[in-house]
Amino acid sequence: MIKVVIFLIVIVKLNVFAAQEGIPCSAENRDTCDPCGINGKWKNDLGSEMNITCKLDSPDRNTTGEIKGKYNSAVGNAEDFYPLSGRFTMAGPDLQNCVLGFSVAYNNAVRGNSNSTASFTGVYFKVDDTIYTHWILASNTEYKDMWRNSNIGKNVFTRMASL
């Protein structure tokens, strides 16, 4: 009886339900499940696009993990996709939401080094399947002009339909 109870506790602890597929995350599928509900393609209010995946740190830390993907800015001199990386933690009373942050260094094979980075922080709300973010874009400037090296704004990302 004690073994059954311990087994059930371990199973409950290992499982975090993926927001979109309803597939529980476990030790066996933690690299392919969607623990935070944000895996996929997204577009923001300015037309920028990103493709992201989230992955649990480990089965025993089933509410935190990493975000990886690529980002294509529709504004400025950005061209093609740039790598992005970040972190997430599940939030809310039923762990349905996801607090997240990710950064993009604008340096790729198409444009080279754009001498700028952007960091986004925000929340994914499952109720409307939307990511709400604020961002800071930092660009290289001359030392005497450092007061103007940062821009701050916000973006709302909505999921792009799968083909």
Automatic annotation (TrEMBL):
Keywords: Biotin, Disulfide bond, Glycoprotein, Secreted, Signal
Cellular location(s): Secreted
A cellular component term, taken from the record's GO annotations: extracellular region
UniProt GO MF annotations: biotin binding
Predominant subcellular localization, coarse grouping: secreted
Keyword Disulfide bond attributed: yes
Claim: Kinase is one of the keywords in the record: no
Gene3D superfamilies: Avidin-like
Pfam families in the cross-refs: Avidin (PF01382)
Organism superkingdom: Eukaryota
Signal sequence coordinates: 1-18
Membership in a protein family: Belongs to the avidin/streptavidin family.
Protein name in the entry: Uncharacterized protein
